[in-house]
Amino acid sequence: MPLPWAGAPACARGGLATQRREDPMAILQVIEYTDASGQEIVHRVPPTGSGEFRLGSQCIVREFQAAVFFRDGKALDVLGPGRHTLTTANIPLLINLIGLPFGESPFKAEVYFVNTRQFLDEKWGTPEPIALRDPDLGLVRLRAFGTYAFEVADPQLFVNKIVGTRGYFTTSQIEGYLRSIILAKLTDLLGEAKKGLFDLPAMFDEIAAGTQAKVRDDFAALGINLKALYVNSISPTEETAKAIDERASMGAIGNMQAYLQYKAARAMGDAAQSSGEAGGLTGAGVGLGAGVGLGAAMAGAISQAMQGGQGAQQAAATVACPNCNAANPASARFCNSCGAPLSGKKVCPSCKAENAPEAKFCNNCGAKLG
Questions:
Q1: How confident is the model over 267-282, as pLDDT tens digits?
Q2: Which domains does the chain have, with CATH numbers?
Q3: For 183-205, how does the pLDDT look when each residue is reduced to its tens digit (9 = 90+)?
Q4: Is residue 112 a contact partner of residue 67, using CB atoms and an 8 Å limit?
Q5: Using H for helix, E for strand and C for coil, what is the string for the chain?
Q6: Cα separations in angstroms, 78 against 165, 191, 199
Q7: What's the Rg (C-alpha) of the chain?
Q8: Residue 147 pairs with which residues in a beta bridge?
Q9: Residues 6+ apart with CB under 8 A from 199
Q10: CA gap 64, 41 in Å, rounded
Q11: 334 has which bridge partners?
């Protein structure tokens, strides 16, 4: 006696998932995919190989989905949201490609369900630091991070370029490829801008807009519409940050020679005190000898620093004329050789305008300054 469900379609006997589990090569009566996470860009049915379809099978496409039939490396027919019965009318490209006579089936193909909703808050970042020339620091290595938003505007073109050409169909592969495009354009933009590290935080909006303009055409060629792109951070690597801290410390110190002499005197004083506190007669003798030696060295360092200061004072006792370079007393207001004012500015011999001491040409008339 035949079983009551023997002639029922596969979907009535437990659905598509059960059918695939029992027989991967079984004819697919119902083709559909539900993405509970909403984060999958494209999903392939079946996951591997080609599926067996027949005319009359049902294809269910949900909202924000497009079903793209794929065979022999080409994206063919596209079905939008709704429930579709496969006929020669709604998959004509596929039928013509395989030369299937009307009503004859099954046939082999793949179906890619493309998510057409807008993907927000997608992350991009530099896996390796970007090396750039910096007008202030020389060479810097930077890391950059941000977000972007996109949507698949042309599912057929998208499947052709991403799946057919690149062979990518998992979300991680596609996102990695899109990030590589963004980073290539960002690096190119930063290299062309030739801005210093300290100028970049004020230019995040301009950098984002420029990168988006460069990336938009590349995304469009893949059937993707880039909706937005943001730069959240551009920061130096740890090595570059240490170099910046050292440079800032040197600037705060000012006179490096005087600072080193001061540090040497302090170090010798601390060493003498530590040696002088040694216990016992032996320690006292050692401490005394070390103290005498270190005291003499410290006195020499202080004397050298004072001599340096006296030399600077002697050098400052006279001032050079910015016009004729003649030496004048430090208290003089006008040059005793040419009469030019000793204000530290160069006076133009043509129009008498004052210029900066390092100026070579007059900022008023353009005459050459002596």
A1: 887 777 776 555 444 4
A2: 10-115 (no CATH), 119-241 (3.30.479.30), 316-370 (no CATH)
A3: 999 999 999 988 888 899 899 99
A4: yes
A5: CCCCCCCCCHHHHCHHHHHHHHCCCCECCEECCCCCCCCCCEEEECCCCCEEECCCCEEEECCCEEEEEEECCEEEEEECCEEEECCCCCCHHHHHHHCCCCCCCCEEEEEEEEECCCEEEEEEECCCCEEEEECCCEEEEEEEEEEEEEEECCHHHHHHHHHHHCCCCCHHHHHHHHHHHHHHHHHHHHHHHCCCHHHHHHHHHHHHHHHHHHHHHHHHCCCEEEEEEEEEEEEECHHHHHHHHHHHHHHHHCCHHHHHHHHHHHHHHHHHHHHHCCCHHHHHHHHHHHHHHHHHHHHHHHHHHHHHHHHHHHHHCEEECCCCCCEEECCCCECCCCCCECCCCEECCCCCCEECCCCCECCCCCCECC
A6: 18, 42, 48
A7: 40
A8: 123, 230
A9: none
A10: 11
A11: 341
- How far is it, in rounded angstroms, from Cα 168 to Cα 171? 8
Q: Phi and psi for 153 in degrees, rounded to 5? A: -90, -30
Residue showing tokens 């490096």: 256
φ, ψ at 145 (rounded to 5°): -140, 155
| Single pTM value for the model | 0.58
